[in-house]
Amino acid sequence: MRTRLKVCCISSPAEAELAIHHGADALGLVGDMPSGPGIIDGELARAIARQVPPPVETFLLTSCATAGEIVDHVAYCGTTTVQVVRHVDPAAHEIIRGRLPTIRRVQVLHVEDDSILELAAEYEPYVHAFLLDSGRPKADVVELGGTGRVHDWVLSAALVAQTHRPVFLAGGLTPENVGAAVGSVTPFGVDLCSGVRTEGALDEAKLGRFVNSLGNAGRARPTWRFV
Is residue 19 predicted with pLDDT exceeding 70? Predict the structure, then answer.
């Protein structure tokens, strides 16, 4: 199994087409956030999601804090997957599952210290996958993704070793460091935004270099399946 590629902060149909052309397995559509790049409204997210062909997955990044709000957001946008960027009550995922049984649920864990290991164990029965990012959900200016910062890959690797769920790695990934990231963490997939953009726009040359570096970075753990 190759390491999966998720291109995030997609802000137009043209960016979606470019990412798919370069082999993206999934696209990230960013809903309203307290900070960070790539924010689009629900109408545009819905339009992009409708044009994406299978088997490419569409992830809606939602900062909604309750199960009901998350369900409404995902139902409107029509994506195949919801990426919950806040640390919500794990039981909220069970409510989402009941109301949107075909939608895959990915929980973001912001890697600040080793408390993510305990937090992941609490979420694991309720989610399909995890995404490790470099946000600061308790900062004065809340950061829930898109920081462009690398976090502690030692902690990320520890979580990958602990969990039975697929893990996507995000946070400051570039064509220059993705090989080291995959070698250190062995994630199921990688997620990128700022590392392949120039002045906010998806940069085809950078994306091409990233894809080449990822292809040379080895394989993900072959027992994992994102189902």
Answer: yes
User: Which pTM was predicted?
Assistant: 0.90
More confident residue, 102 or 136: 102
For the chain, the structural domain boundaries read 4-215
User: What are phi and psi for residue 143, nearest 5 degrees?
Assistant: -115, 125
Contacts of 66 (CB under 8 A, 6+ apart): 88, 92
- Mean pLDDT over each residue of the chain, to the nearest integer: 90
Residue 91 DSSP label: H
Q: Given its phi and psi angles, is residue 144 left (phi above 0), alpha (psi -120 to 50 degrees) or beta?
A: alpha
| Rg of the chain in Å (alpha carbons) | 16
The answer to whether 124 touches 163, Cβ cutoff 8 Å, is: yes
Task: Give mean pLDDT, residues 19-48.
Answer: 91
Q: Which tokens sit at 165?
A: 């769920």
> Which of 3.20.20.70, 3.40.190.10, 3.40.50.1100, 3.30.1310.20 would CATH assign to domain 4-215?
3.20.20.70
| Residues 178 and 217 sit within 8 Å (Cβ to Cβ) | yes
Per-residue pLDDT, averaged over 79-93, amounts to 94
Check residue 48 and report its DSSP letter: H
Q: When comparing pLDDT for 218 and 120, which is higher?
A: 120
